[in-house]
Design a protein that fits this description.
With about 350 residues, this protein is of the alpha+beta class. The protein has two domains: about 40-190, Beta Polymerase, domain 2; about 195-345, no CATH class. Helices cover about 50% and strands about 15% of the residues. The protein has helices at about 1-20, 25-35, 40-60, 85, 115-130, 195-205, 210-225, 235-250, 260-275, 305-325, 335-345, and strands spanning about 75-80, 95-105, 135-140, 145, 150-160, 175-180, 185-190. Helix 7 packs antiparallel against helix 8 (about 235-250), helix 7 crosses helix 9 and helix 10 (about 305-325) packs antiparallel against helix 11 (about 335-345). It is globular, with a radius of gyration of 24 Å.
Length: about 350
């Protein structure tokens, strides 16, 4: 009888152990990442589109007929912006963000010029080159070129030769052409062109750490898309990446970047406390998430109302609770998946 009891206890312990440590394996998340990420072919096509738009139009834009009438424009180059630049693009990414980068009169300020007038000149230059291929629109930070299959946002950055009190040439201080009308027009001082280098320096490049960070970032963006699918104004994707940046910077080398679900759990826990005060969201109505580099209107939550910030906090708290369940050592893999599927989709 004693032998039977011992055997039953052994079987129970083995069974409990198999359930306790049946967390979602990272290999499963890697496979899901492949499913939701932008395809290599699409990524190559978008990068090629950016190169083609720039090379086809830059000389026309800086010619005497267009911007050249305001002064001398020296070509610096074109850079891809957004999720393609920081490695977290999803398979539903169809638009392209690029920056035309130049120096005006050797790095002088453009503050005496009308940024909206220059944007309309840019539209005319693009029309001369591309004709009816695109529809053209002037927006606050960009000029947009779009058709049924292509959507390109073009920002314009003037690299300055001298640092300002809040903006350093070490961080590629520049003026961003901003505005779509007289009420919104301005030249925004910005270190935005150094942002992706900052990410690379902290997140590292071509390492296991970076792979886990990029994977977690894509999952975070999936959460954003699923939870706020009906919201016109929602927390920007770059704010989620900034949360990961702030977390990584504060934790330093003490943190082990091994699993994307663990990282998301810890980043959301960190974010709830740092930006929203607690899981009760009492600091959410005035919450700020500041871009890691200087730009005017640095708070990435500035376009969200107080109510929207509170709702964002509550959504992050709910996601964190699901992540803590999914990464618990006493929850089975199947139950872990069930906890996350409402936020990340079926994987």
């Amino acid at each position: 009888m004693k032998s039977k009891i011992i055997n039953v206890l052994c079987v129970s312990l083995v069974s409990f152990s198999s359930v306790s440590f049946a967390e979602i394996p990272e290999s499963r998340m890697i496979n899901y990442e492949k499913k939701v990420s932008i395809s290599k072919e699409k990524e190559v096509a978008l990068n090629k589109l950016g190169e083609d738009v720039y090379k086809s139009s830059v000389d026309k834009l800086y010619s005497q007929k267009n911007w050249g009438k305001y002064g001398a424009f020296t070509k610096v180059g074109m850079e891809v912006q957004g999720s393609l630049a920081y490695g977290m693009a999803l398979n539903d990414s169809s638009d392209l963000d690029i920056a035309f980068i130049y120096q005006y009169n050797g790095g002088a300020s453009m503050s005496v010029l009308d940024p909206v007038a220059l944007k309309h000149d840019a539209v005319n230059a693009f029309k001369d080159v591309f004709g009816n291929r695109f529809k053209y629109a002037v927006k606050d930070p960009v000029v947009n070129l779009s058709n049924a299959t292509e959507d390109v946002d073009i920002a314009f950055f003037n690299i300055l030769k001298s640092s300002k009190s809040e903006c350093s040439t070490t961080n590629r201080c520049s003026e961003l052409n901003y505005g779509k009308d007289s009420s919104s027009a301005g030249w925004y001082l910005s270190e935005r062109l150094s942002l992706y280098g900052k990410f690379d320096d902290l997140f590292t490049k071509n390492t296991t750490k970076r792979n886990v960070i990029n994977r977690a970032g894509k999952l975070f963006k999936l959460w954003r898309g699923n939870v706020f699918s009906k919201e016109e104004v929602k927390i920007p994707s770059i704010a989620l990446v900034t949360m990961m940046y702030d977390f990584s910077k504060d934790k330093g080398s003490a943190y082990s970047f091994n699993k994307s679900t663990d990282l998301l759990r810890d980043v959301t826990s960190y974010g709830i406390t740092r930006y929203f005060k607690s899981d009760k969201c009492e600091g959410a109505s005035s919450a700020e998430i500041d871009l890691p580099v200087y730009q005017k209107d640095r708070n990435l939550l500035s376009k969200l109302s107080s109510a929207q910030r509170i709702k964002t906090c509550e959504a992050i708290v709910a996601f964190n609770k699901a992540l803590r369940t999914a990464t618990s050592p006493i929850v089975s893999e199947s139950d872990s998946v069930k906890a996350l599927e409402p936020y990340l989709g079926k994987f």
